[in-house]
Amino acid sequence: MKLLTLTLLISIFFISCNNKPQNIVKKNVIKIDSIYFVPKINKTATFDLELKKTKNINVKGRIQKSSSTSDIKLKITKLDNKNFRCSWNIKKIKITGHTASNLEKKLLELVQGFKYEFLLDSTGIFLELENWKEIQSKGNKVFEVLLEEIKKMPRMNSQILSQIKATVGSMFNSKENIELFLMQEVQAYFSLEGIHMKHNDTITTPVSLPNPITKDLIKQNIKVVFQEAYSDSTCAIRIMQEVDKNDLKSTVNNVYHKMGKNSSAKKINNQLSFKKYDVSIISDCIFSLKTGLPQKITSRKTIIFDKNKRVDEFEITQK
User: 57 or 26: which carries more pLDDT confidence?
Assistant: First the structure.
């Protein structure tokens, strides 16, 4: 069950995420009637970004922590058809807060240099990942390294390993899955583009996103709240995601059944009947009205499963 619990926490993590509340430096608040989020790039612009990520997993009181800092080079070029071609290049990654393990060092060597090349429409809405086959090849190499470590886990057997390969590995098997599960920070950075908001406006949008293991659709309500506009040509936006608890519970059951075929269905159902499930996602963005892009995004996703808890945070800042 420990392996299944860890797998579940990993699978729920891939619900598309946004950001944590941040302490906003006090600025002069101004009134603005409305805003249209769209990149204001005439030809080509390059931005240096810093991405900080932290992960805390608490499984029955045993805590695992990790953190990293990455340098990102973002290049945006306006095309003749008014769409945008972009590249998101991971230039350098540094493990922070602890000494990198041998596994982390291997993964860093593979991930460093990843470059996502993708298209946005004329309003900045994500269209497609162009070099998905290249990302797929690199992603599969990363997964193979992880599998070698998984093989060393206690009570691991060939049947469970095959299930992991077939389920978790499916995140790399199509262009759509790579866009959804491997580009979460990229998608978050451009998540406001194409939206038109009035002052103090709240936009609620229902969406359904798949779980990477079971492919179950999990319903969510995404709320975008216009908070304040400032005299330095920025504004504060909050994004909140409410996950349907019934869909989440159904997905949790299906994950256990899919990954635990050797266990009795009745026993699994009894073990799950008293468990608590919850996912909370809150996002904050300081958005530049001059560039039409975020100056800073912070993100906090909290996953609670019975007595187990996972908290993932990231922060993207323009240097």
Answer: 57
